[in-house]
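Colleagues,

Please find the record for the two-part complex below.
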Amino acid sequence: MTPSAPNSTLRPLSLIAELTHRCPLHCLYCSNPIEMRKAADELTTEDWARVFREAAALGVLQLSLTGGEPLVRKDLPELIASGRKAGLYVNMITSGVGLTGERLAELVEAGLEHLQLSFQDLDEASANHIAGTKAHAIKLALAPVIRKFPLAFTVNLVVHRMNLDRLEQFIAMAEELGPDRLEIAHVQYYGWALKNRSLLMPTEKQVHSSLEIVANAKERLRGKIQLDSVFPDYFGNFPKACVGGWGRQMMLVDPAGRVLPCHAAAVIPNIEFDNVHEHDLGWLWRESGAFQRFRGDAWMPDTCLQCPRKEIDFGGCRCQAYLITGDAKAIDPVCRYSPSHELLETLRSAAAEPLPIWRN
Amino acid sequence: MEMNSIPMVVRGCRLHPTQDVLLMPEGTLELYGPSRDVLTRVDGNRDVAAIVQELLQEYEGAEEAEIRTDVLALLQDLKDRGVLRERT
């Protein structure tokens, strides 16, 4: 196979809007970058409204409002309304801290269609420890309030070594909250999660047992709750199609307006990220160097170029390749054909008594 | 899904106003062929028989048995994907 040129008919389907990096939670696995954006640098209500219009014009269908905690933005109802006005489906990912029935009524009135609430553990003390704050009871109390409104509700369980032994009970807890969807996500090692990798890394036994528990739950809940799961890729043999392929489906705008192909891309050295202050989203998608960097397959090592799986995983995750091997163009080490694949075995074994590092 | 079932889209799921896609939490489902014409009639009031009758009027010369089979198959598929349910 020969390298193919980046497809000019590609269009992004989803826009992740990181409205702020401010957050009442300090989760050990937070996916925000280590270098967080200050409140003073945040885009304004009007900036976001323009970004949403440009996104819709580009073909984007899904808008995910996230952070940090979107609720710390006082203009959240206006932001939701401008997303809907642009023609986007509006999702919000929240910790729930600061949400009341009154506030939620405003958000739903503005056009919010789907809310995702994540839980850190079944046990309150452990959940609060992982979140770095007392949020568990607030989240539990919020679920029946959310259910009174006509919007889709997803409960997200983030799983890792500290809570996997209680997975069955954790799922039972989630079911009782009455969600439409349930997401069970093994931690991915970027951002703060990478700093805490040896603390969060599950054991081989936990992973195998979790796969069985999730498969059974999926079968049992069929027709009642839709269950989606994220595989712990350090335990796999083939990489994930990270963000559906670099610059293929997704755009992320950070709180200050920088536009990235994924949450973690800023870890890769020597990539310049352009800003919505200087360019419109259409230009950013088509022309920005950051989006072109690993789009298509011209950058791929020969092994990947000749591999039929490149149409499935688009070369895996560039950030992971860099974080583990030091080379962003290397084969994703999750892949069994990577010369660094064996490294994962070392990284899977937990260090003795690691100490937690909470984001500030 | 039966002829007297009353299908409705689940909470948080809607048809795009202009494009042939069904929007849902964090996802989209592309619609092919006449799927959109079926889904615009899925409102939690019409039963499958009523939807089939309306489509018969719209698609002149189409076989009723064929439309019935296609509509039932589409609605069942969407139900299996969790985006439709039957009103009880």
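The beta strands of chain A are 14-18, 62-66, 89-94, 114-119, 152-159, 181-186, 226-230, 250-253, 259-260.

Comments are welcome before we finalize the supplementary table.
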